[in-house]
Design brief:
alpha/beta, 13 strands
Length: about 300
């Protein structure tokens, strides 16, 4: 909310929290009023930034959309695939902007990687980070893996043909390591290794395509390209780096949200891709825990 307050495109007019004491404290820090009821907030705003836990996204986002308010969400629409689809449909029907804040998606190096990827044949992604997740077998999927699934879908640009998944308990009582293989209709294969613990290896995405390998370091956001020359030798080609900070990336994304609202541009691709990645997440859960999910 502090970043929103710093941007000229937004005017922060108030906040609502079901915990009124907490709302009063935060509002005092920001110098804005705290509303005791959500409808009172709707009367004053054009857009809402929902920063509540994922399990409450549908409740608050659906109410906001039905009041024709533009909505900004963090991470994902919902863990429930039916709720995610309904939010996407509601946003289209209400003709409002529904945007998911995705810190890496707008990172200049991620955008540069997308421009460099033409016809990938194989992609591998490694991400290991000790994050605070809820104690459940699915927490690593929604808390970590979903981010990489969505990134790879946007890179490949093809429908998913087959999903294979395996998980194990390494350092915790719940699944903290997962390996997923995704076969795409265009022939590309993606392999994801994700662990909820620190690793000595470097988190990265490697994209293999004809005569080249492109690597993106997911910690330092360094981009490198390895090319095969006509003589059969391999050489590393330098790639320009933006060196932006994560806070700057969030600012860029918030400015994009503001521009979409003011220009009446509706962001539907973001939510559609998130819905598709959520479908894959549920396929992964079904592979790991058969017959625990309803058919979506």
């Amino acid at each position: 909310m502090v970043l929103l307050q710093q941007l000229t495109q937004f005017e922060l007019v108030g906040l609502f929290d079901h915990d009124h004491e907490n709302a009063t404290s935060m509002a005092a820090d920001l110098g804005i009023p705290a509303f005791t009821e959500l409808p009172l907030l709707f009367d004053k705003v054009d857009a809402v930034d929902i920063v509540s836990p994922v399990g409450t996204h549908f409740k608050y986002a659906s109410q906001s959309i039905m009041q024709c308010k533009h909505v900004l969400l963090s991470g994902l629409l919902s863990e429930d695939i039916r709720e995610a689809k309904q939010l996407n449909d509601l946003a289209i029907e209400a003709n409002i902007t529904l945007k998911i804040l995705h810190e890496e998606k707008f990172h200049p190096e991620i955008k540069a990687l997308r421009r460099m990827v033409k016809k990938p044949t194989y992609i591998e992604c490694h991400r290991f980070k000790n994050k605070v997740l809820s104690i459940s077998n699915d927490s690593i999927i929604f808390g970590m893996l979903l981010l990489d699934v969505e990134l790879l879908i946007s890179l490949v640009g093809s429908s998913v043909r087959k999903v294979t998944a395996n998980a194990s308990k390494v350092f915790n009582e719940y699944a903290d390591f997962i390996n997923v293989r995704i076969d795409f209709e265009n022939g590309c294969i993606a392999n994801i290794n994700c662990g909820n613990f620190e690793s000595n290896g470097r988190d990265c995405i490697r994209v293999y395509q004809k005569n080249e390998c492109i690597t993106l370091d997911l910690e330092k956001y360094d981009l490198t390209k390895l090319l095969k020359t006509d003589q059969g030798a391999y050489k590393e080609v330098p790639v320009n780096q933006s060196r932006v900070k994560n806070q700057d990336v969030i600012t860029i994304e918030l400015e994009h949200f503001a521009e979409a609202i003011s220009s009446r541009q509706r962001i539907t691709q973001d939510t559609y891709q998130s819905y598709q990645s959520l479908r894959i997440a549920h396929q992964i859960i079904e592979k790991l825990h058969p017959s625990t999910l309803f058919d979506a």
